[in-house]
Amino acid sequence: MTSSNFHRLLERALQGDKEAFGDFYEQMLERVYRYVFYRTGHIQDAEDLTETVFLKAWEALHRTGRVPDDPEAWIYRIAHNLVIDFYRTRKTSIPLDEAPLPVQESIAEREVLHKEDMERLVNALKQLPPTYQQVLVCRFIQGMSHRETAKIMETSEANVRVLQYRALRRLKQILNRQKE
Amino acid sequence: MSHEDTPEFWLDACLRAMTQEGVSPQQALAKVPPAYREEVAALLELALWMQSAPEVTPRPSFRRKARPRLLERLPAPPVHETASTRRLGGLPFPRPRALAWALALVFLAALFTTSGLVYAAHQALPGDALYPVKIRWEEMQLAWADTPQEKAQRALVFLERRLEELEVLAARGRYQDVLQAQAQVRKWMETVLSTAEHLPKDQREAVLTRLQQRLAAHEQVVQRLLESVPPAARSGLSRALEASQRWREALQHALEAPRSGEKPTPPPEPQPTPNPPQHEKTTHTPAPPKPPPGKEEDREPGPPVEPPGEGPPENPPGGGPPDSPPGEGPPENLPGEGPPENLPGEGPPDNPPGGGPPDNPGGDRSEGKP
Hints:
The structure holds two protein chains of two kinds. Chain A is mainly α. Helices cover 73% and strands 0% of the residues of chain A. Chain A is built from eight helices and no strands. Chain A has helices at 3-14, 18-40, 43-64, 71-89, 115-126, 130-141, 146-153, 157-179. In chain A, helix 2 (18-40) packs across helix 3, helix 2 (18-40) packs across helix 4 (71-89) and helix 5 (115-126) crosses helix 8 (157-179). The N and C termini of chain A lie far apart (45 Å). Chain B contains twelve helices and two strands. Chain B has helices at 7-20, 25-30, 34-51, 60-73, 83-88, 95-111, 113-122, 131-144, 148-171, 178-196, 201-228, 234-256; strands at residues 271-273, 285-287. In chain B, helix 7 (113-122) crosses helix 8 and helix 9 packs parallel to helix 11 (201-228). Classes of the chains: A mainly alpha, B mainly alpha. Chains A and B meet through helix 2, helix 3, helix 5, helix 6 and helix 8 of A and helix 1, helix 3 and helix 4 of B.
């Protein structure tokens, strides 16, 4: 799905076409879910937040009366802000081991993180400042380019390079502390 | 230190080489200066570890229900502002914002309970119970003006309202209240002149010129009304007409004077007459005002006006068209009803010199609204 297709769907959504917005939702669902999951580490929270991201997007679309220039970056920004609000209002989070991790069945054949590793990663990510979480999830979990990440973070590509370095360093420190 | 001498650069160079050129981590690290190699290698390992994170996907049960549930939860698209919603006073906001606006409006309504009274008084005419409220409110607005320009502009607007009130009273057949309206015209005329004194010369002249134009338009309306009012009611209107003419002449005199900063001399106060008309409830009627010295013999009668029912009225230069023929109710859009939007130096006025209908038919009656 290209950005122009997203534009077309959102244009129709702006006219009140809920089905078009439903199509947009389905196209973006997995990516947003993954992004939110690695920021929260909890399935139920990720599901709730994912849905809320699109509800907020619908409201924002009609409030502003215009389709954003980059729908993907726009959705990720909404998701990022919601995650921040989520942590602001809910200080406690259910541990990962209370729910099964939503890992694809086929991943067993690939080099993947084990469940334990994923827990470590998510818990360490959650200890980072939101900007560091954002840059790491975008760059290394979602596999976005510098440019895509910069758009979402509304910053320069050069700053993304600096941020990813600093975020990795901090993450390394946290993981080292966890080992000790 | 150039940016290539930083670990940030080398970490990014390694990541780029691996993703874009397909080189191995060892090959990428080989290019990194030894001073940074260890640190970059550790961070690169961490980045790769994250990249190998499993493809997290939503649970099938969530995915299955996601779309219908979202569509069910989506609120109806809000109505965007259109010309029709503006006319109908619709709120062009989505629901949450509309609610916030509604609450704000309720708060404001509670806060400005008295403003309701002021608003109701806004339509009041001389002789109405709420008219003093209207005048008091305008006086407060005048007092709150920050600059001499603003004060003069407001005074001019309020004077134009007084002229309009007089015209409306006469058009509605409330001749007994014309005298009070005339007194208000005089009071506000003096206010305009005193506020204009504090303006720079060019702005002051512009105010006086505009005032002249407005008075000329007012005289046209009064002239037409005079044709249709009962004979017994003509004296009050005639006095209003003569007073306006004298004011206008005094303004002309002030504008033509060598030192145009001179304040125009107000015409003498109308004197009560011993025999008021029977139908008027006032106990005294002012005598026709005396013309300014030297003008008594020179005064020309007002321009001829076509009687009602004999065709459309003429709109001579300097006068605005009357809005409805006498006998058909009050004029809805009196000439000059809209306030002057701009003082000299701030843009053109609404009414072009020479009179004519304002740009804002119906007038901006919200001037005094809170």
